[in-house]
Amino acid sequence: MDARQRLIALLREHALVIGEVVLSGGATASYYVDAKRATLLAEGFAAMGELVARQAGEWGATAIGGTTMGADPVACAALAGGFAGKAFFVRKEVKGHGLSRRIEGPLLDAGDRCVVVEDVVSTGSSTLLAIAALAEAGLQICGVISVLDRLGGGREAIEAAAGAPYVALCTIDDVYPERPGA
User: Fold this and answer.
1) Helix orientation angle between 154-162 and 125-136, rounded to the nearest 10 degrees
2) Boundaries of domain holding 69
3) What predicted TM-score, i.e. pTM, was given to this entire model?
4) How far apart are CA 8 and CA 26, in angstroms?
5) DSSP E strand stretches across 44-112
6) CATH number for the domain including 65?
7) 167 in helix, strand or coil?
8) Residue at 53 is within a domain
9) How many other β-carbons are positioned within 10 Å of the β-carbon of residue 107?
10) pLDDT tens digit string along 63-88?
């Protein structure tokens, strides 16, 4: 079984929750994918790291990260999976103490080629926050990766905002093909 197949199997077994839930955008859904339940297991972390590191390498990325919390395990897994660049986290708001940074981690500069990562994308709102913060800082985005895409329209919004390709390691069709309305 390759890394993608392992990741899908782990998401199906550990992360898929059947039942009514309110999504971050406010919509109600009949299922939820709590990706961290699978990706924070050693096997899921390794599979995700391998896949994300490979894709970031293909794009010639030098930095990888996104909005904290969704991006944190993904970026760290990429480092563990062999990505030889920097990891960063984007805060939703600038913190009012310390260095008052919005983008945390090693300093990024104009020459960095950034990959934005997210665990689960529905509409893309969280990913769009990271894209906006990087754009505001004058940083180049060379691609966007999500672990799972719920196929809720996020791809189009993300690609338009990033001006770069978007890749989902898997979609809800892979993890829950028999869902209502599929």
Assistant:
1) 0
2) 45-175
3) 0.94
4) 26
5) 63-67, 86-90, 103-104
6) 3.40.50.2020
7) strand
8) yes
9) 10
10) 999 999 999 999 999 999 999 999 99
